[in-house]
Structures are given as structure tokens and as C-alpha cells.
Design a protein that fits this description.
231 residues, mainly alpha, 9 helices
Length: 231
């Protein structure tokens, strides 16, 4: 049995279907970006606001996973994920600049800049502390061993990783990092960029759900002991 087949056998069929749907959505980003209104891809537009909702949903599920089982390995993983969701959501909201009037309008819509925020210089420092704190907590509580066990059991959501990488590639293409001869093929690049990022964030939320709901398989000896206790 190859690793993909083993993963599909162990995974919840509904989650596998969801991941396949997200993969399809990723491929549809390009044609859809040429069909939807161009203002969907603007800063603080429809797609970017959807991204923020998705990221806040990831934060909510992480908080819930941490509060339900405060001493469980998966709950520590949820705790470590919380700063990531907060930083990503803050970044998409330009650290709060989107709540202020736009500085102007350009070819790609309204212009927002976090440079006008008085606390902007402290953002990298605070974000760095949050990430370091997350890594420290994860190391001390054995989250890395928990993840290693998930990989060993072939239950890691690799399809979500592929989708996130594909979304990053789509976002990069949307930003215009293409050879000159290929740039004309990407119309409404800002819409493609935002849609690809949205699918990537959905894949991250899905991956978090898979990891937080993972339960280690019961060993044969434990099963025998449980059966004896019942008898």
C-alpha cells in the first residue's frame, strides 16, 4: 500500500472530500479570477474580508481545541497555532489600517498603509515574541513529538500542505512574478492573488482540524486489557 492510499484509508472520508474540493477550488481560481468583478480583489474587498473571516475561524477553532482539553497534546498544538492565526489575520487587515479611511485610490482600488499607525514599529517585535513563545511552548510540551507520531501513523494532512503550497504559487503569480511573455496571460492578477490566498487559508483551517482531532490508535495490548476488563 502506498503512503497516499494509507493516508486515505485512515482519514475521515468527509475530510478527504473537503480537501479534494479545496484542491478543485485552487485550480478554479484562475478562471474565476477572470469572471468575478475586479473590485473583489481590492484591498479590504470581498475576497480579502473573506480571508479574515477564515483566519478568525481558525483562531476560534484553535481556542476551542485548547480550552476543551487543557492538558492534552492536541490542545497544546492548538495553543501553539493561536499566535499564527492572530498574526495572519492582523497582516490581512494591515494591522488595523483597513479600519481607517483609505489614503487614496489607485488602479488596484483603495490604498491602505499601516505606516501611519503609531504602533506599527512594534508589530514585528510583538509578532516575533508570539512566534518564539509558540515554538517554546511546543518544544516544552512535546508538540513536535505529537506531530512526528501523526506523520508516522500516516495521518498527516499532506493534501492540505500541497494545497497551501499551490496557493502560495498562485499568489506569487498573481503578484506579477512572471516572465514578461507570460504576464499577459494573468489578467486581474490582484483577484487571482487574493483568491489563491483564501483557498490556502481554508486548507490551513482544514489541516488544523485534522491534527486536533487525531487520536493515536489503540495498541493491541491495550485492546486485550480492555476486553478482559469488560469480561
Amino acid at each position: 500500500m502506498n503512503p497516499l492510499s494509507a493516508y486515505l484509508d485512515r482519514a475521515d472520508p468527509h475530510r478527504v472530500t473537503l480537501q479534494r474540493f479545496l484542491l478543485l477550488c485552487l485550480f478554479l481560481c484562475y478562471p474565476l479570477s477572470r469572471m468575478v468583478p475586479v473590485d473583489w480583489g481590492w484591498e479590504n474587498g470581498v475576497v480579502e474580508n473573506t480571508q479574515v473571516v477564515v483566519l478568525l475561524a481558525g483562531l476560534f477553532f484553535a481556542c476551542r481545541g485548547w480550552l476543551r482539553k487543557p492538558k492534552d497534546a492536541s490542545s497544546m498544538l492548538a495553543l501553539c497555532a493561536m499566535p499564527v492565526w492572530m498574526i495572519l489575520a492582523g497582516r490581512e487587515m494591515s494591522w488595523g489600517a483597513v479600519f481607517l479611511p483609505p489614503l487614496g485610490f489607485g488602479p488596484d482600488g483603495p490604498i491602505y498603509s499601516s505606516s501611519i499607525l503609531p504602533y506599527r514599529p512594534a508589530v514585528p517585535f510583538v509578532a516575533g515574541l508570539l512566534i518564539l513563545g509558540s515554538l517554546a511552548v511546543g518544544w516544552r510540551t512535546g508538540v513536535h513529538r505529537h506531530l512526528k507520531n501523526i506523520v508516522a501513523q500516516r495521518a498527516f494532512p499532506w493534501m492540505c500542505v500541497v494545497i497551501v503550497l499551490g496557493a502560495a504559487l498562485g499568489s506569487t503569480i498573481g503578484e506579477g512574478h512572471l516572465p514578461n511573455f507570460a504576464r499577459d496571460l494573468v489578467d486581474r492578477s490582484e483577484v487571482l492573488e487574493e483568491m489563491a490566498e483564501c483557498v490556502g487559508y481554508l486548507a490551513m483551517v482544514t489541516a488544523q482540524g485534522v491534527l486536533l482531532r487525531y487520536k493515536a490508535p489503540v495498541k493491541a495490548a491495550a485492546r486485550v486489557a480492555q476486553a478482559g476488563a469488560v469480561d
